Amino acid sequence: MTGSLLVPPAALPTIGPLARAAVDRGMAVVSAVVPAVASAVRVHYYGGPLFADRLVADLRPDLRPDLCLLEPADDWLPGLPLSLVGRRIHATTLGEARSRPDRVFVKPPSSKSFTARVYEHGGELPADLPADTAVLVADVVEFAAEFRLFLLDGEVRTGSRYATWGRLDPAPLADCPDAARVCAFAANLPGLPSAVVVDVGLTGPPNDPRATLAVVEANMAWFSQVYMSDPARALDVVLRAAGPMVDVPLGDRPFLRRHRTLV
User: Fold this and answer.
1) Which residues have CB under 8 Å from 183's CB, separation 6+?
2) pTM of whole model > 0.85?
3) Are 116 and 94 a contacting pair, CB within 8 Å?
4) Residue 229 pLDDT > 80
5) CB within 8 Å of 133: residues ≥ 6 apart
6) Where would I find the ATP-grasp domain in this sequence (predicted)?
């Protein structure tokens, strides 16, 4: 495969495995500066959303459609039924969330503009962001284990456990007794782009049939850490999620990052 995988000038710590996988298949891994973009035949991207927006804005007008970014809809998670999420989730604004007196989990839908975590009350939320910033507010749930799955065309291509009881604890899926169950759950989730990352939580001890599964969140594949996933298989998902328009299936058009990528 030819083409370029663009990365931010300040490379993310997570880029190493994906970069090696890209080089192994004949791609160039380059710092995302406009001259490199202009000379590339096929352009793909791995990095943060803010830099991606600046990058696309700087592209020549005739090149802009050739870097298309897929992302889950902001209202996807709160729109899922309780049986899939296992907790109350609603979309609101940062201003409303700041008035909450109770302990809740708060996250930006996709922008990563502040840290997603449990806040003891709304007063702990960032004060330097506009009140109309979109956020998701959810009941606090403790997961025994959390898994990251890279999905392409409804198939889990690779994944790993990334946390146990809220602490970072990566492990290959092959070492996780609930892997088959977790993968089947993720592969049947509706309303997602063809290339996406889904995080799934397990509410009870491993290998316990009484433990339930719940969606933690969905993420842009082009800004998702691979943890102990197979980098080559994760790269397959990243390349579809951030690449030329010719690779974007018709069903993915609603998931394009339209408002900033000008496509």
Assistant:
1) 149, 156, 159, 173
2) yes
3) no
4) yes
5) 93, 94, 95, 108, 113
6) 85-237
